[in-house]
Design brief:
Elements (H helix, E strand, L loop, with lengths): L12 E2 L2 H11 L6 E5 L5 H6 L6 E5 L2 H10 L5 E5 L18 E6 L5 H9 L5 E9 H8 L9 H9 E9 L4 E2 L6 E8 L8 H11 L7 H4 L6 H6 L13 H11 L3
Parallel strand pairs: 2-3, 2-5, 3-4, 5-6
Antiparallel strand pairs: 1-8, 6-9, 7-9
Length: 258
């Protein structure tokens, strides 16, 4: 029976063989890898990965799809975690000694940002992440200071990861086709992130970008004095989208030294 994509789960199933092959080549799965796929759906990518992997894990919320996966794959080939990836403990997946987890997935666009922040909690245990996301989201993730799309997502993820937009995927590669273009992003955790308290950095960045059109001095009014902003190496008259990650970290460390 054909599975009908469910809007509430943000389901768009990738079916283009050329795109699937390109993604698999980018991931470059090796036999000994500890791999987990988020949202395997109809298992198009799962099939590709299992050509190189003797076993892998998947996290799937849709119970109908879980049942399909259980019928299709033996347990020694696929370990299925039925549940919400936003709540899943990725640290619970067993990883061979000396290795780290590899994470892949066609992430539901409606939960992509909170899921990326959830995964950041496990960054020290992760080797790399390859995700399909809405192109606009990936552009925000990799944006540099001065870009119109540089913002909270850019700063917070670049603090934890080195990221690259690998290639764009057209809507017709999916069933049903989404209304937007997609893109593949590679995320490699930074071995030694700039020292600062994450919650403090998050608070600073969120306040800074809450009023993008104002200068940074006005955006951070009540949190920092103009002299403190200068102390962090920032011109108080610039806008928040021109301030580099290192400068936001410097601000966070003024509030709560690392």
């Amino acid at each position: 029976m054909k599975h009908i994509a469910r809007k509430r789960f943000g389901q768009n199933f990738l079916h283009d063989d050329n795109v699937l092959s390109s993604i698999t080549e980018s991931i470059n799965p090796r036999a000994g890898d500890a791999m987990v796929e988020i949202g395997p759906g109809l298992a198009a990518m799962t099939d590709q990965l299992l050509r190189s992997l003797p076993h892998m894990h998947v996290v799937e919320l849709d119970r109908d799809l879980v049942a399909r996966l259980e019928k299709k794959y033996p347990r020694e080939k696929l370990t299925i975690h039925s549940g919400d990836a936003l709540k899943f403990d990725f640290g619970s997946i067993p990883v061979p000694e000396g290795q780290k987890l590899r994470v892949v997935g066609n992430l539901p666009y409606n939960i992509s940002s909170p899921l990326l922040f959830h995964l950041a909690d496990f960054a020290p245990q992760v080797q790399d992440q390859h995700f399909m996301l809405q192109k606009e989201v990936v552009e925000r993730m990799v944006a540099e200071p001065g870009s119109k799309v540089y913002g909270r997502l850019s700063v917070m993820l670049q603090w934890r990861y080195q990221m690259d937009l690998l290639f764009v995927v057209p809507p017709e590669a999916f069933d049903p086709p989404p209304k937007v273009e997609s893109a593949i992003v590679r995320m490699i955790p930074v071995a030694h992130p700039l020292a600062c308290d994450r919650e403090t950095l998050e608070a600073v960045v969120q306040k800074a970008f809450s009023q993008r059109r104002k200068v940074i001095r006005n955006c951070l009014s009540g949190m920092f004095t103009e002299e403190q902003i200068k102390e962090a190496g920032i011109d108080p008259t610039v806008r928040p989208e021109t301030v580099a990650l290192e400068q936001y970290v410097a601000l966070a460390n003024l509030l709560k030294p690392a």
